[in-house]
Amino acid sequence: MEPSPFELPADTVQRIASELRCHPADERVALRLDEEDELRHFREHFYIPKMQDLPPKKACLALPRARSLVGKPAYQGLIERVQ
């Protein structure tokens, strides 16, 4: 089946999965998409790290405890307003 020029990405995945007779999350769908990718030649120009290669995320870096003018942590006022 030939893809439409206006086909949405989700429809493309569904179409390929039905052609391969597998689930849309199957690895074969991803491999087919990689084969059809017009920009695949750019992959050799970039290093894409694996999750296991990344340093662990520290909690203190995710939410710094900066102080606001009233003495509360800066993010605490945001939490109070949202709730």
UniProtKB/TrEMBL annotation:
InterPro entries named among the record's database cross-references: PyrdxlP-dep_Trfase_small
Domain of life: Eukaryota
Protein known as: Kynureninase
Organism expressing this protein natively: Equus caballus
Species classification: Eukaryota, Metazoa, Chordata, Craniata, Vertebrata
Encoding gene, per UniProt annotation: KYNU
